[in-house]
């Protein structure tokens, strides 16, 4: 069975998004995903257009307006 991977990126000034991202990461690990939680500014931006599909990847986007 192929390893299930999940990358959760967050951007936060108050810490709320980080807390949420870490909670999602813990839940993903309980569901047997290999999960990484990282700050958005630590991840290289490839495109500023519409979200791109990354082959073999799952993604979650959280935004607070």
Describe this structure as you would to a colleague.
By secondary structure, the protein is an alpha/beta fold. The protein has a domain at 10-43. The protein is built from one helix and three strands; from the N terminus they run βαββ. The longest helix has 15 residues, at 16-30. The radius of gyration is 12 Å and the shape is flat. The mean pLDDT is 79.
Concise overview:
This protein has 65 residues and is of the alpha/beta class.
Summarize the topology:
Blueprint: E1 5-10, H1 16-30, E2 34-39, E3 58-59
Reported for the largest beta sheet, the result is:
3 strands, parallel
H/E series, N to C? EHEE
**Protein structure class:** alpha/beta
Low-confidence spans: none
Strand content: 15-25%
Question: How would you name the oligomeric state of the polypeptide chains in this document?
Answer: single chain
InterPro entries: Flavodoxin/NO_synth, Flavoprotein-like_sf
Domain Flavodoxin-like: 8-45
Organism: Gopherus agassizii (Agassiz's desert tortoise)
Pfam families: Flavodoxin_1
């Amino acid at each position: 069975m192929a390893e299930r991977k999940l990358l959760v990126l967050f951007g936060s000034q108050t810490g709320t998004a980080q807390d949420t991202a870490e909670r999602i990461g813990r839940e993903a690990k309980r569901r047997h995903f290999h999960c990484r939680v990282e700050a958005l500014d630590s991840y290289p931006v490839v495109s500023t257009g519409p979200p791109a599909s990354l082959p073999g990847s799952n993604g979650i986007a959280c935004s607070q307006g």
